Amino acid sequence: MYAEDIEKLINFALVDGSVSEKERAILVKKAVESGIDKDEFEMVLDARIYESKEEKSIQNESSSIKSDKPKTKSVVKCPNCQGNIDAFSTVCEYCKYDATGRNPNASIQHLFELLNETESQRKEEPDTILGSISNVFAEAFSDGPDKIDRQKMEIISSFPIPTTKADMLEFLSLAYPKAQQVGNIFTRNSEKNKLHNQFAMVWKNKCRQIIMKVKFSMKDDPETLNEVLHYAKELDLV
Predict the structure, then answer these.
(1) Domain residue spans in the chain?
(2) Residue 97: which of 89, 87, 107 has the closest Cα?
(3) Whole-model pTM?
């Protein structure tokens, strides 16, 4: 309906089914700058939010109907006694082994491997005069990320949420600086900061998903919950 860059921003904002006041302000500002009527855009945005919530509701109902089996906790093997323990537990209930260090950083490492593989495609493109001219024109007339960066954003958006406590905390600690906007009102859209800030919106949405997961699954672990809520506060996701 709208230009590709605006549609992309709307999709990023709706990744969790809702749009915060800050995200709405950014979307409205971008739309007005593109010549779109503010009232019309807000009406369309509200409709998109409603459609997104309805779609998620239908998906949840469908999943509930299809599955008659009771939900079970995600379990992993204790590295010491091989007993089954909750994926979010920090101590094995059988042998009291400290299990916080099992498979550390596995999830975030895999994500960065995917991002590096995608970035390498940029370097593998043939360095021809025609290709260089094409890139110059593409950069001159494009107000958004290029093809490789869009692919990387899609990888981040669709990457599965980590399932263990260690991975979720590691993911948040590494994603946190990438999810922060840089620059002020005058410099945030400068050539130096613009791409970082476009990626920051994607990282922030991924952090939001993880924080919501932690709030639900670790509500009985106040130490971890406080650590995660610190990230949420810093990213204005409380």
Answers:
(1) 1-68, 72-102, 103-238
(2) 89
(3) 0.52
